[in-house]
């Protein structure tokens, strides 16, 4: 054939369900596919490749995937009538848990890839192009850490001034309700130098805040630049040295892995933001034992005291499950009492959802739906009251806000306080990516309102280091 061939770019649409790690993974998949000629699109109708990056943590999350696949089937058939071929893939934890089942239940799916095999996406897509259906659900986290490309400077920049960075994947804790040890596999830590390199690249591309991710992020360990064994605390100290990286966060943690160095980091590291998500799940010792959490309510409360001694203003959050098999009224009241004792700034709560293959799924004493619903509503009301009280306590204070993006109204920016609250401030777009001193003036439904204040002798537009934070 003669003449110029026009190479049109292929488009990929990725829909992300579930946790922040899936958000991070979706970005990495987009990065891997970019070198294969795919550009991201926000419109599923225009996509040549549709990926659903799925969550299996609760039944509802998994069911959503099948209903979405029903809609995509209609779209794919319509595209085929117009002579356009659309490839459909399922990735994430549903892919891992139900690989062959998805292929059977949803013939629309061409590709099934588990969370530890994304490095093979380009190769698997070539198999699909050759007319085969590709299913890959190997456990290979170390290989994924090694081989999945990091974002380029431009890709990082396009995603804003805050970023996630996975430092650990998998879980060895085997809580009896949880699918994660089966879908994400055994705990593997990413090497320290790779994490530092990626964080430095992010900072260099304009990222001001990094949230370190892991299913059990505080179980991270590795050999540090000094040749010694590091835990998350030591890693945070190293990351805080990276120029431009003003803020660090991490999620999600297990109470049993909060060691002294990590608590010390909360005391001594201004860049480590005063917000900690530390799930306890239940306040009843019987239930904690049945969940295999390996600690008692009193251990958790003592730990909270130590963390608050180190960082008195820390905002705490947790996950709670109501209606775990065997949960009595008294057990539930123990959870309510724990919440009252701790005083949370936020919390996430769920009705127990039996997950196939987990030890608790077939236990006696499954709690009736109506009772779970009643407990959930009571718990959520208590937590919402605490959250509102926490937010109200910040009205009238001055704090550092990292401006992330345009706000709700024109002329406004949305930023985050050190305590992860959304703050709406009248400020110019040029301030995105800077940290400003903000006087908190009011309380909205989902955010705070504030005004920029000047610090004598400091130009208003300059990014203000977090050391200034009180
Ligand atoms: N049922 C209800 N909630 C669950 N979670 C995990 N597994 C289940 C389940 N089977 C919740 C836990 C966990 C959060 C991510 O999801 O609270 O901390
Ligand atoms: Fe699941 Fe428990 Fe591991 Fe968290 S610690 S991922 S709840 S098994």
UniProtKB/TrEMBL annotation:
Coiled coil, from the record: none
Pfam families (UniProt xref): Radical_SAM, TRAM, UPF0004
Keyword Iron-sulfur: yes
Keywords: 4Fe-4S, Cytoplasm, Iron, Iron-sulfur, Metal-binding, S-adenosyl-L-methionine, Transferase, tRNA processing
Catalysed reactions listed for this entry: N(6)-dimethylallyladenosine(37) in tRNA + (sulfur carrier)-SH + AH2 + 2 S-adenosyl-L-methionine = 2-methylsulfanyl-N(6)-dimethylallyladenosine(37) in tRNA + (sulfur carrier)-H + 5'-deoxyadenosine + L-methionine + A + S-adenosyl-L-homocysteine + 2 H(+)
Residues annotated as domain MTTase N-terminal: 10-130
Cofactor section: [4Fe-4S] cluster
Compartment list: Cytoplasm
Domain Radical SAM core stretches: 157-389
Predominant place of localization: cytoplasm
TRAM domain location: 392-454
Residues reported to bind [4Fe-4S] cluster 2: 171, 175, 178
Entry EC no(s): 2.8.4.3
Record carries keyword Transmembrane: no
Binding positions ([4Fe-4S] cluster 1): 19, 55, 93
Quaternary structure and partners: Monomer.
HAMAP family in the cross-refs: tRNA_metthiotr_MiaB
Protein role: Catalyzes the methylthiolation of N6-(dimethylallyl)adenosine (i(6)A), leading to the formation of 2-methylthio-N6-(dimethylallyl)adenosine (ms(2)i(6)A) at position 37 in tRNAs that read codons beginning with uridine.
Stated name of the protein: tRNA-2-methylthio-N(6)-dimethylallyladenosine synthase
Gene name as annotated: miaB
